[in-house]
UniProtKB/TrEMBL annotation:
Domain of life: Bacteria
Residue span(s) of domain HTH cro/C1-type: 10-65
SUPFAM superfamilies: lambda repressor-like DNA-binding domains, P-loop containing nucleoside triphosphate hydrolases, TPR-like
Record organism: Sinomonas cellulolyticus
Listed name of the protein: Helix-turn-helix domain-containing protein
PROSITE patterns named in the record: HTH_CROC1 (PS50943)
């Protein structure tokens, strides 16, 4: 079953209805851009009103309508993180697919085992897609190939689940995120992190409705595990797979009457799917008889004629080695170097190969050793199957080039992270975030390499550069662990670098309501700032201390610190280490923050001026995310001033902005603003509904309500919370979700 995220689902439904994007947009009374962005994956969720309009236009009813609504809320049967789209259609495996999908109907652990290249991942994804409708709370997929131990695997699983609790171990975080939800967790390549099995055991023991589907060369060896051994293809399916791939490799090839040759070739590679694909790729240059003869001699030599239990795995390795031996020198070198990536763009590959990599990459694609990106892939990333990657890494070690290549890889992604840290604060910010999200596996590989190779400062630079990415991405647990680990390892790092790390860690803790830890980072940052002449560090220390004071309800202290931070921000110029663009952004956010302090000391008119100024500054920068936040803050002032109509207009404008940007964090804040507006008008039912929806989004993100809004909520909603109307509205909003 194909990816059932919002984009593919909307395209499928539109095509089934026979509509163009323009016709669907017109029938639903929505913009063409809304339809286009959703189908291209630029938006992964829709608001309920937009969802209802599209469902009406598509004529959806009953279960089909409910399914589409779930997809549009990001809670689709494949919705915690879309299942990866398969490169090719599944051939054969009809009985296995039916049997595996049936095993997933009950909570528990099912592990698909088998030799490398036998198709474990492909079958697991297909079965997850088939069974997805049974999981009311969705399917989460996590690729563990880039992890290196139980902790990193646990953090990857936590991120896939949207698990972002502020306190506790990774196990507690994961189990809390799952709770009583009925969901399917798909873990691929589990054999690389066998020590993570206790995490799965704990989750299954504490989460009664959880089903785990693992793909692994070896069992997890847990008591509740149901093993699903996957054998090579049967003779008919193997011949079909080879014939289809051979015809693709050599257009117009007539394989009629070649059944015996094809059957012989299939037996030479023991009907292992990946080995079949590698052999079929050679049909572009060899006749079937020549291919059979070469396979017969080469594989016998490479395997030593072994017929032991590992024969199939040895056959796969031998098939890869044979394909590798037929490559020219540059292509062999490229394969070894590209194996360090967890997916790559041509630009990233150039950094490692030192030249245009397209000729070699094209050769590897032609030989089925590398998968090319799909035509609609917004990130254009090439991938390498795990078995091939493992082979390539071994060749890299044999060449004695591993350290140099891994250094280049890590340096490339460090530069990308530091560049994106600035790009996420201006026009194009969502594209920058999307690129980092697509390279999360590479970022993990780079961070691990920096730590293992003694580059502590580089690890700290990488962790510090990503704090806003983690905020947007929802990976608080992983982000905080990275910074904490890097700070401990690089205790003698440059003070300005440590200051940046404390800044990022402080904010990640702050947004999760971990104010004690945020206070610790604020104090460390203040000490470093006092010891330096850096206006940037002084401004950052004052800001974090001011926001901690706000959380403590020390309003005068907060206003004083945030006002002082704004004064320092005005002194930041183009020569500031952050650069001219970042100086402008820091001035904009400091202006907004000063308005926060003024609001809670009763200086409403001054606060309104600050928020209006911040809105214009963010607009000039192209930062729509924070422009929308300034709109929400302006609305809060208008609510306090009793100007409900103006407040509503501002919140509606903010709602459109977060809708266009798919800004979940901003959505939660906007819903809170709407709740406060309703509460100020004594509409308890609407206030409860909006507040509940905001709470659902915050829970999904793993954040708490910002003190700015929490304080106002106490004022506007406090008297209403015990009313029957508020409770009824809360129940309605919680059921509706986001």
């Amino acid at each position: 079953m194909a990816d059932t995220g919002l984009g593919p689902e909307l395209r499928r439904l539109r095509a089934a209805a026979g509509f163009t994007q323009e016709v669907l947009a017109e029938r639903a009374s929505v913009s063409i851009r809304a339809v286009s962005d959703a189908e291209r994956g630029l938006r992964t969720r829709l608001y309920p009103d937009t969802t209802a309009r599209l469902a009406d236009a598509l004529g959806l009813a009953g279960a089909d309508r409910e399914r589409f609504a779930a997809v549009a809320r990001g809670r689709a049967p494949a919705g915690l993180g879309p299942l990866p789209a398969p490169r090719t259609a599944l051939v054969g495996r009809t009985d296995e697919l039916r049997a595996l999908a049936a095993l997933l109907t009950e909570p528990g652990l099912v592990t698909v085992t088998g030799t490398g290249g036998v198709g474990k991942t492909r079958l697991a994804l297909a079965a997850a897609g088939e069974a997805a409708a049974s999981f009311a709370d969705g399917v989460a997929f996590v690729q563990l190939a880039s992890c290196h131990d139980a902790d990193s695997a646990g953090l990857a699983i936590a991120t896939a689940l949207g698990a972002n609790a502020a306190h506790g171990s990774v196990t507690e975080v994961v189990c809390a995120a799952i709770g009583s939800r009925r969901l399917l967790l798909v873990c691929d390549t589990f054999e690389v992190v066998p020590h993570a099995a206790p995490l799965i055991a704990a989750a299954l023991a504490r989460c009664a409705n959880l089903t785990v589907l693992a793909a692994s060369r070896s069992p997890l060896r847990l008591g509740a595990e149901q093993l699903f051994p996957l054998d090579p293809l049967d003779e008919v399916s193997a011949a079909r797979l080879f014939a289809e791939r051979a015809a693709s490799a050599r257009r117009g090839a007539d394989l009629t009457g070649s059944g015996a040759l094809i059957a012989d070739i299939c037996e030479r590679v023991q009907r292992v799917p990946l080995a079949l694909e590698l052999a079929a790729a050679r049909v572009a240059h060899l006749g079937l008889a020549d291919l059979r003869d070469r396979l017969s001699s080469q594989l016998a030599v490479l395997t030593g004629g072994s017929v032991d239990d590992d024969a199939r795995h040895r056959t796969l390795e031998s098939t890869i080695a044979w394909s590798h031996g037929l490559l020219d020198g540059p292509s062999r070198s490229a394969l070894a170097r590209l194996a360090v990536f967890d997916g790559w763009t041509l630009a990233a590959a150039r950094a490692l190969t030192g030249r245009d990599p397209l000729p070699e990459v094209s050769t590897l694609v032609d030989q089925s050793l590398v998968a090319a990106p799909g035509p609609a892939d917004p990130h254009g990333r090439y991938t390498m199957l795990d078995s091939v990657r493992e082979f390539g890494l071994a060749r890299l070690v044999d060449e004695g080039a591993e350290r140099a290549v891994r250094d280049l890889h890590a340096a490339w992604f460090l530069a990308a992270a530091e560049s994106s840290a600035g790009a996420m604060r201006r026009s194009g910010q969502h594209e920058a975030h999307g690129n980092l999200a697509a390279d999360l596996g590479n970022l993990r590989v780079a961070f691990r390499w920096f730590g293992a190779s003694g580059h502590g400062e580089d690890a700290l630079r990488l962790a510090s550069a990503l704090w806003m990415f983690w905020l947007w991405h929802g990976g608080f647990a992983e982000g905080r662990t990275w910074i904490r680990t890097a700070l401990a390892a690089a205790h003698d790092a440059d003070p300005s670098l440590r200051a940046r790390a404390h800044w990022g860690a402080g904010w990640l803790g702050y947004f999760q309501g971990d104010y004690p830890e945020a206070r610790i980072h604020a104090s460390s940052l203040a000490r470093l700032a006092n010891a330096s002449d850096s206006a940037l560090e002084q401004r950052n220390a004052l800001t974090l201390r001011g926001m901690v004071a706000l959380a403590d309800r020390r309003f005068d202290d907060a206003a004083g610190l945030l006002g002082e931070a704004l004064a320092v921000a005005h002194r930041l110029g183009p020569d500031n280490p952050a650069g001219a663009d970042q100086s402008a952004w820091l001035l904009a956010i400091s202006t907004l923050n000063d308005g926060v302090g003024l609001t809670h000391t009763g200086r409403i008119d001054e606060a309104s001026q600050r928020f209006a100024e911040a809105r214009e500054r963010f607009a000039e920068l192209g930062d729509e995310t924070y422009r929308a936040r300034a709109l929400r803050h302006l609305a809060a002032i208008r609510v306090l001033a009793g100007e409900a109509g103006t407040a509503r207009s501002l919140l509606e404008e903010s709602l459109r902005a977060v809708h266009d940007a798919d800004d979940r964090f901003g959505l939660a804040e906007t819903l809170s603003g709407l709740a406060q507006l309703a509460g100020s008008g004594h509409d308890a039912r609407s206030a409860g509904a909006f507040e509940a929806r905001a709470a659902v989004v915050r829970q999904t993100l793993g954040v708490v309500q910002h003190p700015f809004d929490a304080i106002l909520a106490e004022r506007h909603l406090g008297p209403l919370r015990d009313s029957l109307e508020f409770r009824a509205g809360w129940a309605e909003g919680a059921a509706l979700g986001d």
